[in-house]
Write a sequence for this structure.
């Protein structure tokens, strides 16, 4: 594994385990649903800045973090504990509503 990829994987693992509130997106470059979600996730990340951290995990480059049943999965975590999980495409309003419902 390249050093840059290893550093990103270590950073993402640390953030997911210790972050106050983290939305992790697990994707693959070859996945058409994942590609469709990229601009939505980018906007979500900007809108939720300061409220939570968004990490994007490429399952092919960070396979140690990708213990999933299906590709394109979102997991909302607090200090390593999964609070919510869903696979598949979602719109921006749905992602923001999850955070609102879980965090308050």
């Amino acid at each position: 594994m390249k050093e840059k990829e290893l550093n990103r994987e270590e950073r993402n693992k640390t953030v997911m385990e210790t972050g106050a509130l983290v939305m992790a997106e697990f994707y693959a470059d070859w996945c058409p649903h994942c590609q469709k979600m990229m601009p939505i996730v980018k906007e979500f990340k900007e809108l939720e800045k300061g409220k939570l951290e968004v990490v994007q995990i490429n399952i092919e480059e960070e396979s140690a973090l990708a213990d999933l049943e299906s590709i394109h999965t979102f997991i909302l975590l607090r200090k390593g504990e999964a609070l919510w999980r869903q696979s598949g495409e979602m719109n921006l309003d749905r992602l923001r509503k999850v955070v609102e419902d879980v965090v308050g």
